[in-house]
């Protein structure tokens, strides 16, 4: 049966970036959405700024919820479904935390009882405000909120692996109470997959929530080590999708490539379109892939100060809503690909990252790591290759459930 992969984009407003919530303009939003829909995309991911929506622990602004609903309704007018992130949290190098949990009111984001209670009420309010809208896809707990939990954050909210799991389950339960039955998820940056000391783990990502989300950024050492057109760089998104499937208890669990982009100078602007095409071609046929959501829709206005240089030019469109070559490449891929027939990888590499729950040896999965190198060596030869955790490599029933007929080698710690 043909498989239809969803194609969307992370919505960065062309005027004011995410500060647009302070000067909410439905006409500007509709113009942005019109330019997004023109690329043939079917969904967007949007980002309320937490301090603006819940400026006091006991105040969730009705006007902010109303404006979020207006944005979702405007997206429906353009044939776009909407996924909404809750706890922003962290965006493009900036942290957005409400004042009631910083400085004089400093308390832990993941473990303080009053903070957790407030977060639950906030996520429930977001979900409840949008429940029943036909184009609302569900909530994501927050954007890479795991970056607050440890180094290299300058002021981390320390948490144990057990506390992280408890927090995630409570947040997702709050989402489901607000909008029952929708595929609510959570999202981590790649320390969850690549750093054995990080409290958020691959098992958290692959077993909690309705889908596994992955963020594939090649400025994490991949493009620096292997070059902008290296096989490992172009295969990185496919790799993290296959890595995610290895930790899932359910072989049929969907994976959402929630962020992928072409960051300059690691991907030179003149090579961004080629990078996008190669990345999409490698990942779009991965079995179990729910969708691909590019980062991001529109460039950041250079009138806004202090962003890292790479953040300004990640858009598929300019601030004037003109389609860039990378946007043209994505639109052409969507037009030409159509529904694809997906065949699960018959061959899988065995990964030994230690205990499956905490994965202390997951550093072997990072760029330059032994498992990363092995997987890329096999995959760059044209073979579609999966990943199997070491303790499951001899489980015939499990392998059959994933359609894997052969396991190859074992990369130990």
How would you describe the overall organization of this protein?
Helix content is 35%, strand content 15%. Helix 1 (26-37) runs parallel beside helix 3. The chain is of the alpha/beta class and 413 residues long. It is built from 14 helices and twelve strands. The two termini are 39 Å apart. The strands form three sheets. A seven-stranded parallel sheet has the order 6-3-2-1-9-8-7.
How is the secondary structure organized here?
Layout: E1 6-10, H1 26-37, E2 43-46, H2 50-53, H3 62-77, E3 81-87, E4 90-91, E5 94-95, H4 113-130, E6 136-142, H5 161-178, H6 191-194, H7 202-207, E7 212-216, H8 222-226, H9 231-247, E8 255-260, H10 272-283, E9 289-295, H11 309-312, H12 325-337, E10 347-351, H13 370-379, E11 385-389, H14 396-401, E12 406-411
Parallel strand pairs: 1-2, 1-9, 2-3, 3-6, 7-8, 8-9, 10-11, 10-12
Antiparallel strand pairs: 4-5
Helix pairs in contact: 1-3, 3-4, 4-5, 9-10, 9-13, 10-12
């Amino acid at each position: 049966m043909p498989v239809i992969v969803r194609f969307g984009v992370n919505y960065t407003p062309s005027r004011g970036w995410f500060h647009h919530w302070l000067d909410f303009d439905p006409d500007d939003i509709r113009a942005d959405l019109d330019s997004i829909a023109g690329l043939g995309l079917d969904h967007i991911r949007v980002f309320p700024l937490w301090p603006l929506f819940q400026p006091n622990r006991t105040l969730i602004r009705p006007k902010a919820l109303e404006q979020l609903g207006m944005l979702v309704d405007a997206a429906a007018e353009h044939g776009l479904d909407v996924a909404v992130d809750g706890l922003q949290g962290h965006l493009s190098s900036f942290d957005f935390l409400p004042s009631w949990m910083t400085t004089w009111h400093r308390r832990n984001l993941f473990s303080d009882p009053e903070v957790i209670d407030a977060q639950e009420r906030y996520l429930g309010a977001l979900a409840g405000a949008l429940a029943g809208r036909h184009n609302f896809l569900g909530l994501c707990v927050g954007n890479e909120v795991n970056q607050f939990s440890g180094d290299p954050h300058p002021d981390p909210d320390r948490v144990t692996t057990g506390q992280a799991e408890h927090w995630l389950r409570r947040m997702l339960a709050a989402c489901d109470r607000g909008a029952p039955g929708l595929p609510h998820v959570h999202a981590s940056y790649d320390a969850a997959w690549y750093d054995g000391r990080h409290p958020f783990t691959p098992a958290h990502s692959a077993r909690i929530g309705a889908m596994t989300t992955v963020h594939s950024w090649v400025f994490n050492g991949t493009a620096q080590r292997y070059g902008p057109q290296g096989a490992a760089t172009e295969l990185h998104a496919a790799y993290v999708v296959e890595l995610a499937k290895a930790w899932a208890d359910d072989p049929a669990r969907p994976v959402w490539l929630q962020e992928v982009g072409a960051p300059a100078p690691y991907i030179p602007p003149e090579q961004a379109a080629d990078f996008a095409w190669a990345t999409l071609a490698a990942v779009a046929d991965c079995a179990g892939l729910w969708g691909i959501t590019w980062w991001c829709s529109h460039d950041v206005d250079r009138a806004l100060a202090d962003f890292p240089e790479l953040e300004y030019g990640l858009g598929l469109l300019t601030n004037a809503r003109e389609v860039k070559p990378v946007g043209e490449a994505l639109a052409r891929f969507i037009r030409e690909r159509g529904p694809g027939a997906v065949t699960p990888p018959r061959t899988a590499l065995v990964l030994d990252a230690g205990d499956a729950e905490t994965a202390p040896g997951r550093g072997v999965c990072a760029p330059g790591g032994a498992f990363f190198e092995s997987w890329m060596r096999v995959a760059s030869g044209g073979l579609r290759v999966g990943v199997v955790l070491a303790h499951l490599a001899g489980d015939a029933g499990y392998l059959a459930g994933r359609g894997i007929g052969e396991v190859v080698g074992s990369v130990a710690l």
